[in-house]
């Protein structure tokens, strides 16, 4: 397996013992009695084999699959860990001797040994109970099993193996996992490796149990999420335990990406009855995750809903943004950040109006109009808005005047896009040359049409509450009224996002349901990512279409890399490769952004596109599972 070369002649050295066996491992010298490592020169690998031993009583009782605790929860840099669990039935003559003679004598010895040490006294009591349980199982024809666990650390140098070993032990300590001892038999590394798949250690330091007891000490493939405190999200399809529920604790989740890839989860409301596959199910998954973040004490959850439907609860507020208004001219921010807030709002309003123009005329000169439109908007705010202007050309030296641009609780006095239309009309009237007149007319007519067609987006005053009751947990801003026109939906989203990130408090969470269901330029939302980061706001983003050009790949600078997500949920992936103009949510992107290769088993299952099956991954403990997702809302 490892292309080992036959040693012709052992090297002569006072420090080396006579070469053992037929193959050499140590660089150039063969195998030594004192070697703690195995060197595989042809592959530039170094390995060490360890016995994994458990102190008596430290894992009794435990849940099925508890043995997975020996797998460290942190990344062990530069090392690959392999765990081998070996079991072998005890021969019948030996089993008969143990059951008929040794059980009774051991029980008598344990029960009649005087002890003054309280810990040892407690252990003796446990031993007595264990022997009695074994006797009962033996009476039911249960067999006796010898078992052991080996851990192999593979790296590129002995130094990295020792560093990895220290990290593993530190991981056990940090996670309060007691009673695990890692033993390396120096000088027996070759024999340990040679017998890895053929022999079981059967001695007092390893486990000898009845088969029923040994069964709970298996490494169940994807024993999955079985958190003590969590919610059921479905069935782990790879678990050896039949119908094994996946129970996930989301309290460690701050940021998450959910890509359904047109795979629909099963949803029940109020109980398991009435279950059905739901389109745009990423919204439901996001709801379940965000409920968990709230339980961790993170704060209120703000939902911008473009896909799915709001799951209203008693502690929620719901706003239909097709009927409600956020005045886009109004600058929501703080006195400390007023300059950046004002500039961001100039950019936002300009982008909103550009999107409106593009929606009616795809052949506009974007660059020329953008520059002129933003210049007119800033000039209007400085000299005209509100009567005598609400801003200044010198905000650093005139902070009071600059802060006049900030929104207050009195929204009815703030100028609107309809007021700015007068500026655009005057600009059209004053245009001299034919080209300027044409562009000015385009801007004026486009904004005038937008005001008439979408009054709640452009012509009204902000009519959302200034203050929310402290018991409000979820706030839904539903912009699905504009979903049939992606660019106008982008206008509504951009305006709502700007409002929400500035209204949200420190440590709140924002959930964007269906970012790929609209059209909005990436650069226009980046300023709000900076505010999200500054205020430590959590961000959960859902995507529904697997081949959309708006996805975690193309919008990575807003959503963040896959490696920085606390939770990843994937249903389907694109089979398209990136090209010069487009980026897709494909396996190549996932592997790059995640800084690891997605397991082949997972890739295979995702490519099958089974309805309801999602890959769930949690960063805090690197736990993952393929789950037939069934959510209870």
Automatic annotation (TrEMBL):
Protein name, per record: Uncharacterized protein
This protein's source sits in the domain of life called Bacteria
